[in-house]
Structure formats: structure tokens, C-alpha cells
């Protein structure tokens, strides 16, 4: 596959440590991924040798920081397949990106009674901002269920739309089920009906190639800390037509040209939507992380993770006392599960941790999906590009211990 997972693992210093006397098996990538040494080095260098504020200085360090910071805009555009880097706005992550869409675009373009279509497997970050509009503006939220395998039918999404639908906001990949949604079909159908599309790219952008131009979406936010980059970093692609319909969401320095007692003249986009001193070093680190991923090849990463998915699916299917949620054929390498009996997800996670296996436990910020599935909480093992089939075996061994303890 042209992908050497052991060489990749060597780039991540934390993967060599032990937890509870066991080799660390890190399977919590859906929440946050580990960082390669090149990202750690870039952050250290930025703080120790190159730090200054950006845009407003004329001295050497400010110019250098600005050059590196602004250079990341082109890196993100290339990573997401955007035609123009000015369609990239830096954020602290997907949550801020979606709120930017809610306050900057939806609040300006939706009215009482207008509708937003969502799927039941959305992360709370792609639910709560729309509830704000429901509470404050009288916008209606329309929900579309997933099928028994966890798939979202694009036709069902479009059938949920009416002449009052102004926005479809769905995930590209579920952080609980691993389902990959056919968002291209949704975006094309939505564009034909003049409905805007907000595609949550938090998970999909990590695990497979993404081309927003090909997808035809209007908004596509991503999160840096899931992309092997620093926390507090991220970006959102916004189609130029939609950006022209937006008003600034946060006011402050650098998003303005002039400020007077009776007038404010805003800066051009994308700076118009980036107020205040940004996460300079975080953004520089994000650029290094994306370059690292593109250097490995997103197709290679996706192929490696498909191999992991298939192996994990086979091993987990062999545990007849394990209840796995989500059976989409083309899902990503994300597995949420419960054990038959009374074992709570937190108890399972604690036992796994004693074996050095790190998984997530709880509702995974997906309350509506949990309600839909009739599950109060689950464990989630989410794989990344540095995970191996041996680590799948370690997960299975730890789960068998859980079964012995709780059966």
C-alpha cells in the first residue's frame, strides 16, 4: 500500500510509552489524535525562535510569523480541495466553524418558520447552534433517521426538505457509527433546490481524501486536534457565494479596516471573519500536521484504515456477547459497542484502561443518536493511521477479560 505503519508510529513519541505497565494502545482518536514529532518541533520552534503577533507588525519576527501563519491557508485549501485559499477561514475547531455559520450566515438569511434538516447522528456541535436559532428565531429543526445499519439515505434527507428548508446540516462521517454519508449526492440535490449545505468534516477529513469542490458543499469545517495537529486549531471552507451573504460573527481587531465613532468599515474576507489575535502557533502546527498527512498520502491512510476496519470487524463479530452499533458496509474504522448484561460503558472502559487500551465511554456528544438506538452509553474504539492489527488483538483480549468479569 506504500504505507509503513511502523515508520509512522516512530514519528509519534507518545506511542512508545506504557500505561498501567502495559504498552499504550491508543484507540480514542475520534476524540483527539496524538501529535507527530514534526508538529511538536514546529510548535517549540515557533515559541522559542519565531514568535510574534501577526499582520500588524513591520519588524522581522512579525513578518516571519505572518508568512508562516498565512501560508497555512493555502495548505488547508490544498488539503480540502478548495479552489481559492480566501475561502478558508481559520477557527479554533469545528465547533467555532459551525457557530460561525449559525451566527454569520443563518441568522442573516433565515426567518421564523424556516427549516434546518439534520440527521439523528449529528454531534452536539452540529445540533446546539441550530437549537439557538430555534429558541431565538423560531427556526424549525427537521430530523432524519438512519436505517438499521446506521446508513443515512440521501433521498430521505431530500424528502424531508420543503419549500421552507434553507439549510441541510449533516456529518460526513459519524463519530459514533463510523458511517460515511454520501454528502455529494445531498449537496448536488440541495444546490438544485437552492438549499445551503453545512457538512461536518471533523471525522471524514482525518480518514479519507476530501475535495469540497467536488462535493459541492457550501460549508465544511474541520478540527485540528483530530488531524494530528494542536488543540485550539481548525478551519472552515466557505463557498464564495455564501461568504458574500455573511456578516461578521465576532468583532475586534484585524477584521476591520477603519473604526470611527459612527461607522465601522470591515476588512475583506477571510480576515473579516477572524477577529482578534488568532491561535498563531496552533495554526502553524496545523499546517505542519496537514503537510505530514499529505506527505503520507490520504489515499494510503484511507487504505490502511480500511484494512484495520475489516480486521477489527472480523475480530469483534466473533464476540457473540458484544453489541456493536453501526454496520454500514463502507464505514470508517470506528466501533461503538456495549456488552450484554449490566456492565456500564464506564466500567468497561476502566477495565480496558488497566490493560493499556484507551477508548472513549459515554454518549460521545450524540444524544439524539443514543435515543434513536435505545442506548444510554457505549464504549468507542476509534482507529487512526498509526494503529495496527496487533492493537486490534489487544482490544479483543481486553474485551474478553471484561466479559469474564461482568458476565
TrEMBL record:
Keywords: Pyridoxal phosphate, Transferase. It catalyses: (sulfur carrier)-H + L-cysteine = (sulfur carrier)-SH + L-alanine. Its EC number is 2.8.1.7. GO terms for molecular function: cysteine desulfurase activity; pyridoxal phosphate binding. InterPro entries: Aminotrans_V_dom, Aminotrans_V_PyrdxlP_BS, Cys_dSase_SufS, Cysteine_dSase, PyrdxlP-dep_Trfase, PyrdxlP-dep_Trfase_major, PyrdxlP-dep_Trfase_small. The keyword Transferase applies. GO terms for biological process: cysteine metabolic process. Residues 25-395 form the Aminotransferase class V domain. Its cofactor is pyridoxal 5'-phosphate. The keyword DNA damage does not apply. Catalyzes the removal of elemental sulfur atoms from cysteine to produce alanine. Seems to participate in the biosynthesis of the nitrogenase metalloclusters by providing the inorganic sulfur required for the Fe-S core formation. Belongs to the class-V pyridoxal-phosphate-dependent aminotransferase family. Csd subfamily. This is Cysteine desulfurase. It comes from Pseudooctadecabacter jejudonensis. The gene is sufS_1.
Amino acid at each position: 500500500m506504500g504505507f509503513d505503519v511502523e515508520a509512522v508510529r516512530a514519528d509519534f513519541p507518545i506511542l512508545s510509552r506504557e500505561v498501567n505497565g502495559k504498552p499504550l494502545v491508543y484507540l480514542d482518536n475520534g476524540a483527539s489524535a496524538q501529535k507527530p514529532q514534526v508538529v511538536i518541533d514546529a510548535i517549540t520552534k515557533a515559541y522559542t525562535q519565531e514568535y510574534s503577533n501577526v499582520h500588524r507588525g513591520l519588524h522581522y519576527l512579525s513578518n516571519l510569523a505572518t508568512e508562516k501563519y498565512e501560508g497555512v491557508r493555502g495548505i488547508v485549501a490544498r488539503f480540502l480541495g478548495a479552489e481559492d485559499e480566501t475561502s478558508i477561514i481559520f477557527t479554533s475547531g469545528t465547533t467555532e466553524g459551525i457557530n460561525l455559520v449559525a451566527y454569520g450566515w443563518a441568522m442573516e438569511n433565515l426567518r421564523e418558520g424556516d427549516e434546518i434538516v439534520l440527521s439523528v447522528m449529528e454531534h452536539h456541535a452540529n445540533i446546539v447552534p441550530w437549537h439557538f436559532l430555534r429558541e431565538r428565531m423560531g427556526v424549525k429543526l427537521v430530523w432524519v433517521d438512519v436505517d438499521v445499519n446506521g446508513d443515512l439515505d440521501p433521498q430521505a434527507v431530500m424528502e424531508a426538505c420543503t419549500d421552507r428548508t434553507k439549510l441541510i446540516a449533516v456529518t460526513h462521517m459519524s463519530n459514533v457509527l463510523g458511517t460515511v454519508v454520501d454528502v455529494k449526492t445531498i449537496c448536488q440535490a440541495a444546490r438544485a433546490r437552492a438549499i445551503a449545505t453545512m457538512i461536518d468534516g471533523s471525522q471524514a477529513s482525518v480518514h479519507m481524501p476530501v475535495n469540497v469542490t467536488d462535493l459541492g458543499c457550501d460549508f465544511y469545517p474541520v478540527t485540528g486536534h483530530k488531524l494530528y495537529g494542536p488543540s485550539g486549531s481548525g478551519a472552515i471552507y466557505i463557498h464564495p457565494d455564501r461568504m458574500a451573504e455573511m456578516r461578521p460573527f465576532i468583532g475586534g481587531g484585524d477584521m476591520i479596516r477603519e473604526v470611527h465613532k459612527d461607522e465601522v468599515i470591515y476588512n475583506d474576507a477571510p480576515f473579516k471573519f477572524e477577529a482578534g489575535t488568532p491561535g498563531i502557533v496552533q495554526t502553524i502546527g496545523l499546517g505542519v500536521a496537514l503537510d505530514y498527512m499529505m506527505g503520507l498520502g490520504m489515499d494510503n491512510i484511507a487504505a490502511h484504515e480500511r484494512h484495520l476496519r475489516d480486521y477489527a470487524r472480523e475480530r469483534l463479530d466473533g464476540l457473540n456477547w458484544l453489541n456493536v452499533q453501526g454496520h454500514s458496509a463502507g464505514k470508517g474504522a470506528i466501533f461503538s459497542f456495549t456488552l450484554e448484561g449490566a456492565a456500564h460503558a464506564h466500567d468497561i472502559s476502566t477495565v480496558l484502561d488497566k490493560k493499556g487500551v484507551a477508548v472513549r465511554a459515554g454518549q460521545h456528544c450524540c444524544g439524539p443518536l443514543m435515543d434513536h438506538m435505545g442506548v444510554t452509553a457505549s464504549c468507542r474504539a476509534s482507529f487512526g493511521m498509526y494503529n495496527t492489527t496487533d492493537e486490534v488483538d489487544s482490544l479483543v483480549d481486553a474485551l474478553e477479560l471484561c466479559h469474564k468479569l461482568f458476565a
